[in-house]
């Protein structure tokens, strides 16, 4: 019997980290499934989903904790059951002058209209002409029977106007 687990990690950015993690999963008869890995500042961080035999859970957990000695902090947890009541997904893109509170306002609008964030990527870039900080975000959101698309559109429009942002809602 197998189980799906989530492994999160962070460490100094250097070559070989993914190889170490994938090696441990393979050594414990596991299969690397999904992952989101990224360098943030000078650190490398990520979360991955793997399928492992139930009999290997404790041994993999122990092996992952031993990575602390080489500077890789890890956490292992059960992946839980997949969500099955999702009707569809949408994509929200956002672009505008960087300022505190953009992510808070975006996620507040999503939650209040009944949407769940499936993924969120953000970055601060330099605007080409002015050199000012420019905030960019892309979120994939899930619609279910409780989601209110018209309410979300209204909230995003109000947010765009108040914060001088370009916000687009696109069906996937």
Descriptive terms for the model:
172 residues, Alpha-Beta Plaits, alpha+beta, 27% helix, four-stranded antiparallel beta sheet, 44% strand, single chain
- When the domains are counted, the total is 2
Instruction: Indicate the radius of gyration in whole angstroms.
Output: 20 Å
**Separation of the first and last Cα atoms:** 35 Å
Largest sheet, described in full?
4 strands, antiparallel
Output the helix-strand order.
EHEEHEEHEEHE
The helical percent reads 25-40%
Shape: flat
CATH-level-2 architecture of the largest domain:
2-Layer Sandwich
Strands, total number = 8
Low-confidence runs: none
Top-tier CATH class of the largest domain: Alpha Beta
* Relative strand content: 35-45%
Taking strands numbered 1, 2, ... along the chain, how are they ordered across the largest sheet?
2-3-1-4
For this structure, the quaternary state is: single chain
Q: Output the CATH homologous superfamily of the largest domain.
A: ACT domain
What is the fold-level CATH name, i.e. the topology of the largest domain? Alpha-Beta Plaits
Derived from helix and strand composition plus strand pairing, the structural class reads: alpha+beta
Number of helices: 4
Arithmetic mean pLDDT: 94
């Amino acid at each position: 019997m197998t189980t799906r687990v989530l492994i999160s990690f962070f460490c100094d950015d250097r070559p070989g980290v993914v190889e170490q993690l994938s090696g441990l999963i393979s050594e414990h008869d596991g299969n690397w499934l999904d992952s989101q890995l990224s360098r943030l500042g000078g650190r490398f961080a990520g979360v991955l989903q793997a399928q492992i035999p139930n009999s290997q859970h404790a041994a993999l957990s122990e092996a992952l904790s031993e990575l602390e000695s080489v500077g890789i902090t890890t956490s292992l947890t059960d992946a839980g059951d997949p969500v099955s009541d999702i009707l569809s997904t949408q994509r929200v893109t956002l672009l505008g002058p960087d300022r505190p509170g953009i992510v808070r306002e975006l996620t507040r609008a999503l939650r209040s209209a009944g949407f769940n964030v499936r993924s969120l990527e953000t970055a601060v870039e330099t605007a080409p002409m002015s050199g000012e900080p420019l905030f960019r975000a892309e979120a994939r959101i899930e619609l279910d029977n409780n989601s209110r698309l018209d309410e979300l559109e209204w909230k995003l429009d109000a947010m765009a106007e108040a914060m001088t942002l370009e916000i687009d809602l696109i069906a996937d």
